[in-house]
Amino acid sequence: MEKRNFTRVTFSGGASIKYKEQIFWGNIGNVSLQGFFIKTKHDLPLDNPLEVTIYQSPNSSIYLNACVVRSEEDGVGMKISGLDVNSFVRLREVISQQCNDQTLIMHETYKMANCIH
């Protein structure tokens, strides 16, 4: 059984990944305050800094820095290393809308505070 440290919820949306001067595209499968899974056929290197934009809606995006921590045939698992306050608030809202335990989400918020800039 897989043990998660953060609440993970299903999320459907597109994303762009910038690595060196290239842009790759994919679709988000799920998110947490600590990371996400992106469905993509592109090979992305493990443990290298990437800039990711998650397109939440036409007028709202989540901008973050992340690195690949797991690679699978249909995509990659990424860990968030940094994001701005507005993006953190949007990401937290996505998770809060699907989680009934707001105390747990608040606890996870405190654990992620050092990644917010």
UniProtKB/TrEMBL annotation:
Positions of transmembrane segments: none
GO molecular function: cyclic-di-GMP binding
Entry-linked InterPro entries: PilZ_domain (IPR009875)
Every PilZ domain range: 2-95
Pfam family, one: PilZ
The protein, known as: PilZ domain-containing protein
